[in-house]
Structure formats: structure tokens, C-alpha cells
Amino acid sequence: MGKTHPIRIARALDLGGLRRLGTSESAIAYVKDRAGHNRRSAIDAGNARRKLGWERAVTLDQGMAATVEWYQGNSAWLDEVASGEHQAYQE
């Protein structure tokens, strides 16, 4: 939900999968920002902690690893979504 300190997108990608997939940050293509693009975005989990008693269950490293593992284990679903087949189901 949020971190107590900022993290670069490239760092999150590294944590999440680049290392686990056997590639590196050199695989990332940096592009020029779009007009009106947010320079940064952050979530403050303080309200969720105070008002809901929320506490994180996993670290960012653990969550990113679990996300990569889920996608690797559900490649048929990902192929279907990428192909557009899922849209016929929603119509």
C-alpha cells in the first residue's frame, strides 16, 4: 500500500522480477515523459494505519516476488488477456 520512503520504479522492477527473470535494468527502455505526466506519485499508508488498523502483511520484496510467481504460474490467463479473448466474455 505504501512505503515509508520513496522508491524508484526501476528499483521496484528489479525487486519484482528483472533479477528473477534473469535480465537486468539494461532491459528497461527509458522514454521521455508525456506532457502533463506526474513526476512522482506516492501513497501514505498512515490513514489506513490510524483509521483501519492496517499493517502490511508482506514486504515490498515479498509482494513483488509473489506477483512475478503468480504471472509465471498463470501464463495461459495472461496469454488470453493479451490476445483480447477476454473481451468476448465481458460482452
Overview of this protein structure:
The protein has 91 residues and is mostly helical. It has one domain (9-31, 39-90). The chain has five helices and no strands. The protein has helices at 9-18, 46-52, 60-73, 75-83, 85-90. α1 crosses α3 (60-73). The mean pLDDT is 78.
Categorize the overall geometry. Answer: extended
Oligomer: single chain
Distance between the termini: 32 Å
Q: Quick check: average pLDDT?
A: 78
For the record, the count of structural domains works out to 1
Beta fraction: under 5%
Strand elements, count: 0
Helix content: 40-55%
Low-confidence stretches: none
Task: Specify Rg, calculated over alpha carbons.
Answer: 17 Å
- Helix count, per DSSP? 5
TL;DR of this structure?
51% of the residues lie in helices and 0% in strands.
Note the topology.
Blueprint: H1 9-18, H2 46-52, H3 60-73, H4 75-83, H5 85-90
Helix pairs in contact: 1-3
